[in-house]
Design goal:
Layout lengths: L22 H4 L8 E3 L2 H10 L3 E6 L4 H11 L2 H10 L1 E6 L4 H15 L6 E5 L5 E5 L4 H17 L1 H21 L17 H14 L16 H14 L2 H16 L13 E2 L7 E2 L2 E2 H18 L2 H18 L9 E2 L2 E2 L2 E2 L7 H8 L1 H10 L30 H18 L4 E2 L2 E2 H18 L2 H17 L1 E2 L2 E7 L2 E5 L2 H18 L2 H18 L40 H16 L2 H18 L7 H9 L12
Parallel strand pairs: 1-3, 2-3
Antiparallel strand pairs: 2-4, 4-5, 6-7, 8-9, 9-12, 10-11, 13-15, 14-15, 15-16
């Protein structure tokens, strides 16, 4: 399962990354760049030699990370410039989400946007003075020469820029206020039905009524937004919310973003129709999407919602599961150095596998043509096929048999790199999805898989009551971050709900207690110092970076603060202990400052508001 994807010459001398367990770092182990992993050795060298840091952050299944590695980091001229004038540091964002978060916020502040690979130039004491993303060979060479000239001749200006950027980031992180574009909204003091209703209205304003999803391309699934709308419909009977969920789930399932052969969803769609995916497939997306389709099937009894969930989980078991039960991070967008090659088929290729008669039926079903729908080849999709649901008389057994044949052929034709790290947070989300599958589909095997994954975390990724970020080949790395503690506590509470085993509840209380003690902001701040409360991204006894953010925005994943909010809500309900109720109130006040201005960015937190059965803020007839 471990395929170490290296595009440069493995016969050349390895650099320090050859000793690292991260597949992403190892992909750069034979670059001519003198890479260092993040750590004291690199920063001490930079201080001793008075050199700035070249920081590059990415992950092993990232297409543009591969392109930059081949084009720039394998280039001898670029490597010579970097080795002479910088200390180069490579970081796997999935192993160090704290480092990634801090410096991604720098990139977004300086440029208005970010992405991976992330490129940061900074002082030896980690203060950034330049931020960007992908850089080709020539652009990188020019940047290095220009910044080296500034470092040698105008160092004071760069140092002052670094100080100014750090002040700005800390001010932003500590103010805890998000200002909307027109400046009309003010922070709310409470999370209530009005905030919930406002969120639904904003989603409706940006909803694509033809293809589903919100806004224009690129389109991300954003499962937590759909979970919020599902719960809103459950409570209020909202036809508006129901339509947004149904159209989006159907369009995603029919699009090329869904792997119709093996199951599972790609990370996002580059077009409005969900046809052309960004081909990498991640564990966290599929865990959350399985949860959405299962919840929707539970509410609406739409058969293909059940099918979608089952296919997601089948793919995860087949291609991402470790022998001991936990799950790997995801699969690459590239095969043999070509983006999407694994998922694309030529028109005549189908006949060579299925035979002409079968191929003709199969191609028509999945919208495949001689011209193709992506760079002369075909992405399987059901966008123009209205007979995709088993409620009609089409021969679905025939399609499934063809899919099994195509899957075997695809595996033999070429393969995808699998990032076989195991992350606590993403595995915890998978536990939540598996418990839901057990509850909705009444299949005991899903519960057993959830228990097995939880045992793996207990036995391999905890020590003295503390969590680690990742495990790979017997080695753990990284003190657990807020997302690890919050998602794992949620997973334990889900298992408790499904089994009534008090062991899970007691463990959830233990880790939620550590989360509160090490991450919560109990400080008393003056009015001009921002809002107290909320959970920091990393613990008070962890490595202290140039900033200690409190993330609340629900992006590709629910934020740690949103998940922690749900943990506190569940614990106050399950235990009746006053301390959890008090913490819940503090967290609600903290989140309200965001939700008042940007409620759609806090959909998972508002899901907790809807789920709060003790003091429900939104009830049918009021929302």
């Amino acid at each position: 399962m471990n395929q170490r994807h290296i595009s440069n010459n493995p016969e050349s001398a390895p650099n320090r990354l050859a000793a690292e367990k991260s597949p992403y770092l190892y992909q750069h182990a034979y670059n001519p760049v003198d890479w260092y992993p993040w750590g004291d050795e690199a920063f001490n060298k930079a201080k001793n030699e008075d050199k700035p840091i070249f920081l590059s952050i990415g992950y092993s299944t990232c297409h543009w990370c591969h392109v930059m590695e081949r084009e720039s980091f394998c280039d001898s001229h670029v490597a010579e410039l970097l080795n002479n004038h910088f200390v180069s540091v490579k970081v796997d964002r999935e192993e160090r989400p704290d480092v990634d978060s801090v410096y991604m916020s720098v990139c977004q502040a300086l440029n208005g946007a970010g992405g991976w690979p992330l490129t940061i130039l900074m002082t030896p004491d980690k203060k950034p003075f330049y931020a960007g993303t992908y850089l080709g060979r020539e652009d990188m060479a020019r940047l290095i020469v220009r910044m080296n000239d500034l470092w040698e001749n105008s160092k004071h200006d760069l140092l002052e820029t670094g100080e100014e950027v750090q002040r700005h980031i800390n001010k932003t992180n500590n103010s805890e206020i998000i200002i909307d574009l027109d400046g009309k909204n003010k922070p709310s003091a409470v999370l209530d039905g009005e905030t919930v209703l406002k969120t639904v209205e904003i989603f409706a304003a940006y909803f694509d009524e033809k293809y589903g999803g919100f806004g224009s391309a690129p389109k991300f699934p954003s499962p937590h937004n759909l979970l919020f709308l599902l719960e809103y419909d459950r409570l209020s009977g909202s036809e508006k919310a129901r339509a947004m969920v149904k159209i989006t789930l159907e369009s995603m399932y029919r699009g090329g973003i869904f792997d119709h052969i093996a199951g599972g969803f790609s990370r996002y769609s580059t077009d409005e129709k969900w046809l052309i995916p960004h081909f990498e497939k991640m564990l966290y997306d599929n865990a959350l999407l399985a949860l959405v389709y299962l919840t929707s099937y539970e509410l609406y009894s739409i058969e293909f919602h059940k099918t979608a969930a089952q296919k997601i989980l089948s793919w995860v078991f087949a291609e991402l599961q470790h022998n001991d039960g936990a799950f790997f991070c995801g699969q690459d967008a590239d095969s043999d150095g070509v983006e999407g090659k694994y998922y694309l088929f030529e028109h005549g290729e189908i006949a060579s596998v299925l035979g002409e008669d079968n191929a003709d039926r199969y191609r028509k079903y999945y919208g495949m043509t001689k011209k193709g729908n992506y760079e002369g080849k075909n992405i399987l999709n059901l966008i123009k096929n209205t007979r995709f649901d088993k409620n009609n008389d089409f021969d679905f057994d025939f399609i499934e048999e063809c899919n099994r044949t195509m899957y075997r052929y695809r595996l033999e034709r070429n393969s995808n790199h699998t990032d076989d790290k195991i992350l606590t947070s993403w595995n915890s989300l998978m536990i939540t999805a598996l418990v839901k599958a057990y509850e909705v589909l009444k299949d005991e095997s899903y519960l057993q898989a959830a228990k097995k994954t939880e045992r793996f975390i207990t036995e391999n990724m905890t020590f003295a009551g503390r969590l680690f970020v990742r495990w790979r080949e017997g080695e753990v790395l990284g003190n657990g971050k807020l997302d690890d503690y919050a998602s794992y506590s949620l997973a334990l509470l889900d298992l408790y709900r499904a089994t009534d085993n008090p062991e899970y509840l007691n463990k959830a209380k233990l880790f939620a207690g550590i989360m509160t003690e090490r991450f919560f902001d109990f400080s008393k701040k003056a009015d001009n110092e921002g809002i107290s409360g909320g959970f920091f991204l990393y613990a008070d006894d962890d490595e202290q970076l140039i900033s200690r953010p409190k993330e609340i925005y629900d992006g590709a994943l629910p934020s740690g603060n949103s998940m922690a909010f749900m943990v506190l809500d569940r614990l106050k309900q399950y235990t009746g202990e006053p301390k959890w109720g008090e913490l819940y109130k503090k967290q609600a006040a903290f989140i309200a400052a965001y939700a008042g201005n940007y409620p759609t960015g806090c959909a998972f937190s508002l899901l907790t508001v809807l789920n709060d059965s003790i003091n429900r803020s939104c009830t049918p007839g009021k929302c």
